[in-house]
């Protein structure tokens, strides 16, 4: 990986902001991801993210922390927060912005037990595929302290296939040979450079709940957004 995402964040934070990130998927055209949006404060966050931060309790793990906006908000409120990301640029930006406990680390490498785990900004994306989802959920479960919780958001992107045959051919979560309509190839461009394509997963709530139940976790719908998105709470 070239860490174009991290380079873009560092450019913006260091005053070298000249252009935005360009994203696309195998089912959607190019779209602009404005860098200022990634540095937003609490008042500028979507209601789903605000609700997740309101529900945080005890020690907090911010998975895929990005610029550290969620971590900073909770840290400023007195929470004990640990932020992790696989982007070196993101980690450097978090440090420069004042996140006190931040590590370059993948979720599956984390071993510390936590009260609240935040997996936001389409958090299910890090699972990559439906087949991988139970393994990630098992690991998240292993990180939870007694009465701990995972706050995660995603979207049901079935609406993107309204003119196709896509999700109508989906045969259900139990069939791992079926292509789930939320599994996408994600492309990122920045300043003329292309990042290595990533697998990214959008999970509808019922599929997430089924996956959670399969590994002994409970899953409840907390809040629905304005565009097929939702916030869920997962717990033992």
UniProtKB/TrEMBL annotation:
Methyltransferase domain segment(s): 58-162
GO BP terms: methylation
Superkingdom to which the source organism belongs: Bacteria
Gene3D superfamilies for the chain: Vaccinia Virus protein VP39
Keyword Methyltransferase: yes
Keyword Transit peptide annotated: no
Keywords for this protein: Methyltransferase, Transferase
InterPro entries linked: Methyltranfer_dom, SAM-dependent_MTases_sf
Molecular function per GO: methyltransferase activity
UniProt-recorded name of the protein: Class I SAM-dependent methyltransferase
Source organism (scientific name): Winogradskyella immobilis
């Amino acid at each position: 990986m070239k860490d174009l995402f991290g380079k873009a964040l560092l450019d913006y934070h260091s005053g070298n902001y000249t252009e935005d990130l360009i994203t696309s998927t195998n089912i959607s055209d190019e779209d602009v991801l404005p860098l200022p949006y990634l540095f937003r404060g609490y008042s500028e966050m979507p209601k789903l993210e605000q609700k997740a931060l309101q529900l945080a309790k005890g020690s907090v793990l911010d998975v895929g922390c990005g610029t550290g906006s969620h971590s900073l908000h909770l840290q400023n409120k007195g929470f004990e927060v640990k932020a992790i990301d696989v982007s070196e640029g993101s980690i450097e930006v978090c440090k420069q912005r004042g996140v006190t406990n931040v590590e370059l680390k993948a979720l599956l490498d984390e071993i510390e037990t936590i009260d609240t785990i935040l997996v936001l900004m389409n958090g299910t994306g890090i699972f990559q595929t439906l087949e991988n989802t139970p393994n990630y959920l098992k690991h998240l479960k292993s990180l939870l302290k007694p009465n701990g919780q995972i706050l995660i958001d995603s979207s049901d992107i079935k609406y993107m296939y309204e003119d196709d045959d896509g999700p109508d051919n989906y045969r259900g979560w139990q069939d791992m040979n079926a292509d789930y309509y939320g599994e996408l190839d994600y492309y990122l461009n920045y300043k003329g450079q292309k990042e290595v394509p990533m697998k990214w997963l959008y999970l509808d709530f019922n599929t997430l709940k089924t996956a959670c139940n399969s590994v002994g976790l409970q899953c409840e719908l907390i809040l629905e957004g304005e565009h097929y998105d939702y916030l869920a709470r997962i717990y033992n």
